[in-house]
Design a protein that fits this description.
- It is a single chain.
- About 0% of the residues are buried.
- About 35% of the residues lie in helices and about 0% in strands.
- By secondary structure, the protein is an all-alpha fold.
Amino acid sequence: MTTRPFNLKALTQHAAPWNGAPQGTVIGHVHLRVGDVVAAAKFICTEIGMV
């Protein structure tokens, strides 16, 4: 397995509008490495809706 960075802004420019995951969706776990924990937590909780 490799870990490669991705450009989230570039990715979201090509994506359909995000309305959240379907009701009942379960995500086992997610691995993220970030430079600014506070900014990342704010983005993940407010923009993506992961709590």
